[in-house]
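cron nightly-structures :: item 1 of 1
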Amino acid sequence: MHKACSTLALFKAGAIVALNVALPRATQNELNGSEATVLVKNGCMAVSEGANMPTDLEGVHVFKAAKILYAPSKAANAGGVAVLDLEMSQNSARIPWKEVELEKMLSDIMNGIHHRCAEYGGVAGSKHIDYVKGANIAGFKKVADAMLAYRVV
């Protein structure tokens, strides 16, 4: 039986055998390949990382091969980084933003990340989005465009 909401710690301890959604978030390599295999086998539909690389490389390969919704940390965890950037911008400009304005800016940032991941990570002939591929290509393109704009290369 799937739990609508539980913890990865309970899964790892064997207290539950299936999760609909896994949110590894504590430490690097928290979720390994064999655990990822069990999640997929037991019906996990989505994994969204909330820390820096909490799934090891073998686990990433399991999720990608299963074509479940897998949001790597560089895309899924970008909201936290964006909030820090917005906070620094607000502080340096000394202009307070209303909560609604901040939510709109963050929503626009995260929607932009999704659209770029979909653009570069779309799989031909399918609705599946490879967010790992999309985030990697989008990130590379952003850095390359900046380097060209500043004539670094």
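cron nightly-structures :: done
The chain is about 55% helix and 5% strand.
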